[in-house]
Records
---
Amino acid sequence: MANYDYDIGILGGGAAGLTIASGAARFGARTLLIEKEKSLGGDCLHFGCVPSKTLIRTANVYHLMKNAEKYGLPRVDLKPVDYGEVSKRIRSVIGVIQEHDSKERFCKLGARVELGNAKFVDEHSVRLNGEIFSAKKWVIATGSSPSVPPIEGIDKTPYITNKELFSLKTLPKSMIAIGGGPISIEMAQAFNRLGTKVTVVELANQILVAEDKDLADYLMNILISEGITFHLASQPLGTRDLGNEKEITIKNAGGKTIRMSAETILVAVGRKANLQDLGLDAISMELDKKGLKTDDRLRTNHKHIFAAGDVTGSYQFTHAAGYEGGIVLSNAILHLPRKVDYTYLPWCTYTDPELASIGMNEKRAGAAGIHYSVWTEEFKANDRSLAEGEEAGKIKLLLNEHEKPIGIQILGPHAGELISEWVSILNGNVKLSAIASAAYPYPTLGEINKKVVGNFFSGKIFSEKVKKALKFFFNLKGRACRA
Ligand SMILES: Cc1cc2nc3c(=O)[nH]c(=O)nc-3n(C[C@H](O)[C@H](O)[C@H](O)COP(=O)(O)OP(=O)(O)OC[C@H]3O[C@@H](n4cnc5c(N)ncnc54)[C@H](O)[C@@H]3O)c2cc1C
């Protein structure tokens, strides 16, 4: 039997790679983790979830201060935002979390961490810093990078992506965001709230294309009311560097050519898998148009080489990367065959209000030919929402023809937290009647989950048939008042 240096080697120290490295080492596997950058943590920690959510919090606090009068407080005369200070806070939050993802911590767990650019030299070995490292199993977890669309002039026009966004020296006076996906929309609202004049250009006829249009439009109208400009169904034709400003020309929904300019252009049109410089040609690795091609056990065409996280191009979220890391551990280390199942993979766009989703929405159910009914409840009918002054949004519950829940979307305050209850309900096969009959603490936003289920049952419970039966058996006397 071949003798390898390691039981498992992992390329990429982000969400997926770290999950696999810590799990493998703790199970007693001789583990090697190779990261290209100077520190572990990946995009989520350095250029993604952590800085974006930190920035969003800062922007939301500033927004609340600007709107103090809405809460019965005196008006606050605010100074403009010093983005240098905002970036400092972002760096300090990253710094604290970085400690959990340090080389030393992984060494304590039993995993060796090496930094540098590794290249496959054969199916079991990589070359790193002039040395060959072999492993019985490998995992490619090298993540993704921002895609840049082929717009004329973009190569000669300075633009930024999520890589530069959080370390800007000053707050841009104006920004055109190309793309209407989650990253762009979250950042559009945050920068707009901090004081940047933001315009969003999106190719589709709605923002957040994975979401139902009614909820995406509801959110977009809130963002418009805050001052953001949207150009939907609009195609960027070209960009130009004007010096202090950058110009973009678009063909808008009506077919008109429009020119506009801003201090900064943010490119946020999607992600491409990090597959370059890995020597994948040398081992004839099969790719598809999203990234590394895998089977449902996350094995590539070489059954001992796995892939996890953004590099597969499937669901590009940190929790998906973590979930896939668990699947790889099960298959590669525990030898317990386990397949990925994304049926109940939740996600959330962290705008204010947040938009969270799990399972089927109307778009996905319609495309799958599933017959469904929709039950809704508005946040403006939730007492806690009113008390908080956050009454925008609603919850949508989709039931299939057997009246089983198949998906939930929540647009509202803390939707990302509220959807977590549905993660348990759907994965645990909890009966809707159990939710309807349970007591929820009052006043909480979470009551909306019970309320929407109640809306489904109320038509059945308070029916004419039930009333008639109660009248017959218990002689109930009926209405006491007629309006
Ligand atoms: C602005 C922004 C906000 C986001 N917000 C959220 C959010 O709120 N919630 C959420 O769930 N997701 C969010 N995401 C997505 C999330 O960041 C990714 O899905 C997640 O980081 C994927 O983890 P990963 O391990 O696949 O890749 P990464 O975390 O990117 O890790 C890949 C690692 O591989 C390294 N690497 C690359 N090439 C090589 C090589 N050749 N050799 C060795 N190492 C290499 C990279 O340096 C990196 O450290 C956001 C993304 C962005 C850009």
---
Amino acid sequence: MTKNSNSKNDTVSFNYNSSKRGAKHFQKRASLFFATIILVASALFGGNFLLNSNPNSNISTVASAPTGTNLSVTFLDVGQGNCVIVESNGHYMLIDGGNSQYSSKVVSYLKDLGITTLDYIVISHYDADHLSGIIGVLNNYKVTKVISPDYESDTKTYGSYISIMNKKNYTAIHPSIGDEFNLGNATFKIVSPIKYSYEDENDNSVGIRLTDGSHSFLLLGDAEAQSESDILNSGIDLSCDVYMVSHHGSSNSSTNALLDLAKPSIAVISVGKNDYGHPTEQTLNRLLSHNISILRTDQDGTIIAYSGKDFLKWNINFDTKSIKKEATSNIPTEASYIGNKNSLKFHLPTCPNLPTAGNQVYFDSREDAVNEGFSPCGVCKP
Ligand SMILES: [Zn+2]
Ligand SMILES: [Zn+2]
């Protein structure tokens, strides 16, 4: 989608099949007609009619991938953290894995997709809310290429990550700005950082611009103003339709300068309960003042974007939907408790963290579940 495609589609050509003079006359009358409509609408809607007061009106939702989808980008709801799954023509990439609490969710989500091999794992940087979930994925899946920033961290999580990389005999690629990679029908280019020696590790985040030729997605990890300003100065193409808001909406990221240049129409914020005030009001206001629609995983659950030649569609609250589907189709009515074959936890049928259909076992009583060696879920507390 080019930046102006919406307005182009909305522009009606009055010249079609008309004589030149007739068309001109008709255009004049038509513009008078529209001017009247706008005036009336302005009066009715308090004058905000021309200001696009609801930027979210350009989000078009669907329940599943439309035919012709070339690229899908899933912003998995992993609470406070990032986890993005990209698919194009049967090829998969995982960008960040969320924190440890959600590690099993990430692994089982990939299992549900029937994935055995990931073409790429991109680790934006080594903070736990991005790296932890990667460790489980490396344990469970074959990965062709691991892309990560060129710095080291002294955290336990980083230590576990290095161990599993060694065990699997994988060597990470530390990319340079401008490097390009293919994923199915899509490509992605490394757009940040310009160096790996920032004092703030967030600024060392590996950022990518992903595109299928029709739409582009900009994901910069937790990059902050310093790295943003350096990549803006580098002159690399940052234009995008969809921007994953850096550092979960921190006020020190997503500067006006970046938004002016990247010009996204939709922003996705991956965020959960946190003590940092993410996303901050300053960032939300900057997005709104740029007329950018906002989707957030804490409000919209798992968010999937489907890109095709002539469309960009959104599937929001994907978790809730899939759980609802299971609830109606798979749970025997007499079951009082549902166990997870893998984690050996048991849940109330209403728990938001139910296992996928294939991993469910059913118990008539709490006692049965406990006797079978299952322990109660910490969320629904059965
Ligand atoms: Zn983070
Ligand atoms: Zn971070």
